[in-house]
Design goal:
Blueprint (H helix, E strand, L loop, with lengths): L36 H6 L15 H7 L2 H7 L10 H17 L1 H9 L6 E6 L5 E7 L2 E4 L2 H11 L6 H8 L8 H13 L2 H8 L7 H16 L9 H14 L3 H11 L5 H7 L8 H10 L11 H11 L4 H13 L5 H12 L10 H17 L5 H4 L28
Antiparallel strand pairs: 1-2, 2-3
Helix pairs in contact: 2-4, 4-6, 6-8, 7-8, 8-10, 9-10, 10-12, 11-12, 11-13, 12-14, 14-16, 15-16, 15-17
Length: about 400
C-alpha cells in the first residue's frame, strides 16, 4: 500500500485552501523519496522507495488527521521547502476540521448518512487517536494536534485557554491533541503559563484539574537549566495539592510529579496514599518513593510502605515497588526477603520479558545473593529469566499497520 502519492487518474478531493485551490496546491513542495523512508516506515507507510520527485501534499496529510504523518512532513530538515502560504493554508484546513468535527466533516465530504465507524488506534509510539470511516473515506481526529504544531511553526502564541479547550475535547490524557497542548505549554516555561495551570487546582471539573497538574509537572521535568527554577514552586504546588485532591486520575498525576523530587516533604506527601483503593495511585506512590539520591536510600516509613506494596494484589504495583527497591541503594533484610518471596512465587505466571527488565531483575537477584543470606536456596536455583515480582513488563504496543487514506 503506497500512501500520499499522486497516481494517474486519482481523484483529488481538494478543499480548504485559502485561495480555493485543491490539496494539490500544497504539493508544490516536493519531498525526495530518500528523505521520507524512515519516517514513513515508522508510521506505517510502504517502505518501498517512491518514484523520484513524487508528490506528498501537505494539505492531504493535514486532511488525514494523523499528527505523526504531519510531523514527518514538517521535519526541520525539509521544512524550508514549504512557502509560508502553504503553511497558512494547512493551518486553516486543520482549524476547519477542528471546528467542524471529524464525523460532520466526513458527512460533508461524502454526502453519506450511513453509520460512521470509529476505532481507537496508535498515532505514534506514545499517543492515540480515533479513526473514523464513512463510505470508504477514513480520517483520524488528530487535527487539534496538527493545528497546534502549525501555529507554533508560524510564530503564533495560542492562548492557554484555547490549547486547554483542544486538549479537553476528549477525556483522554493519551489523545494526541492533549499531548501536543501540554508539551507546548510546558516548554514555554514562563510565569503566565505556570500561574494559569496552577489555578486549575480548584477547578470543579476533574479533567481540567488533570490538565492543570500535567502542565507544571512537565514544565519542571523538561527544565534543563542549571537554576532548576521550577523545582521549589512545583514541590510547593504538588505537596498541598496531594492532600486535598479526590479524583484518582488527578491524584495519580500529582503523585507522579511529587516522585520527581527528593526530600522529606515529597516523601511525607506520598506515603499517606500507599494504601489508596485505586491501583494507579498506589503505582505512583511505589514509583515515587525511589527518589532519594544517596544512602540510606529509604527511611523506616518508606521501607514499611514498600514491603506492603510488594504484597499488593495488583501486579503493576508489585513490579513498581520491586524496581524502586532494586534501583535504590538500600540493603534492608526485610525488603530483600520480601522480594525473594516474590521471586519464589510460582503461582504468578509471566510472559516474555523485555531485555531491560530482565537485566534489572537478574541484577537484583545477584545483588541479593551477594548481600544477604536470607534468599532461600530454591530462589537461587531459579533460572535467570524467572519472574521478579510475579509479572512481566507489558509487551510493546504494535503500531497500527496502516495510515488513513482519504482519497477514494
Amino acid at each position: 500500500m503506497r500512501l500520499w502519492q499522486e497516481r494517474p487518474g486519482e481523484q483529488k478531493h481538494g478543499y480548504g485552501c485559502r485561495q480555493g485551490h485543491g490539496c494539490g496546491r500544497c504539493g508544490g513542495s516536493r519531498v525526495p523519496a530518500d528523505s521520507r523512508g524512515p519516517g514513513r516506515r515508522h508510521h506505517g507507510a510502504d517502505p518501498r522507495p517512491s518514484a523520484p520527485g513524487s508528490l506528498l501534499p501537505l494539505c492531504e496529510a493535514v486532511d488525514s488527521g494523523a499528527p505523526a504523518l504531519v510531523r514527518a512532513l514538517l521535519d526541520d530538515r525539509i521544512l524550508a521547502r514549504y512557502a509560508e502560504s502553504e503553511l497558512l493554508d494547512a493551518r486553516d484546513l486543520a482549524r476547519d476540521w477542528c471546528e467542524t468535527g471529524v464525523e460532520a466533516g466526513l458527512r460533508r465530504r461524502t454526502g453519506s448518512e450511513d453509520v460512521v465507524t470509529r476505532t481507537r488506534v496508535q498515532d505514534d509510539e506514545y499517543n492515540r487517536v480515533d479513526e473514523f470511516t464513512l463510505d470508504g473515506m477514513t480520517v483520524r481526529d488528530g487535527h487539534g494536534a496538527v493545528l497546534t504544531r502549525l501555529e507554533e511553526l508560524l510564530g503564533a502564541r495560542t492562548s492557554f485557554e484555547e490549547l486547554m479547550a483542544r486538549a479537553t475535547v476528549h477525556a483522554d490524557q493519551g489523545h494526541a491533541p492533549w499531548a501536543a497542548a501540554t508539551m507546548l505549554l510546558a516548554h514555554r516555561r514562563d510565569r503566565a503559563t505556570w500561574t494559569a495551570a496552577a489555578a486549575l487546582r480548584t477547578h470543579t471539573e476533574s479533567l481540567h484539574r488533570l490538565f492543570g497538574a500535567e502542565v507544571p509537572r512537565l514544565t519542571h521535568l523538561f527544565d534543563g537549566s542549571d537554576e532548576d527554577a521550577f523545582a521549589c514552586p512545583a514541590l510547593d504546588t504538588f505537596t498541598g495539592w496531594s492532600a486535598e485532591e479526590t479524583d484518582p486520575a488527578v491524584l495519580a498525576e500529582v503523585l507522579v510529579a511529587l516522585g520527581e523530587h527528593s526530600g522529606p516533604r515529597a516523601e511525607a506527601a506520598l506515603l499517606p496514599h500507599a494504601g489508596h483503593h485505586e491501583t494507579r495511585v498506589r503505582r505512583a506512590v511505589a514509583r515515587g518513593l525511589g527518589a532519594w539520591p544517596s544512602p540510606p536510600a529509604f527511611s523506616g516509613a518508606v521501607r514499611t510502605a514498600l514491603r506492603e506494596l510488594m504484597r499488593d494484589p495488583e501486579a503493576g504495583v508489585r513490579q513498581d515497588a520491586c524496581l524502586t527497591f532494586t534501583d535504590g541503594k538500600d540493603h534492608d533484610p526485610a525488603l530483600i526477603e520480601a522480594m525473594a518471596a516474590l521471586m519464589d512465587d510460582e503461582d504468578r505466571g509471566t510472559t516474555a520479558e523485555s531485555p531491560s527488565t530482565h537485566r534489572r531483575r537478574s541484577g537484583a537477584r545477584k545483588r541479593m545473593e551477594r548481600s544477604s543470606g536470607v534468599c532461600r536456596t530454591e530462589a537461587s536455583r531459579q533460572p535467570a529469566d524467572s519472574p521478579a515480582c510475579g509479572l512481566s513488563a507489558p509487551a510493546p504496543t504494535r503500531m497500527n499497520s496502516t495510515m488513513p487514506r482519504i482519497t477514494r
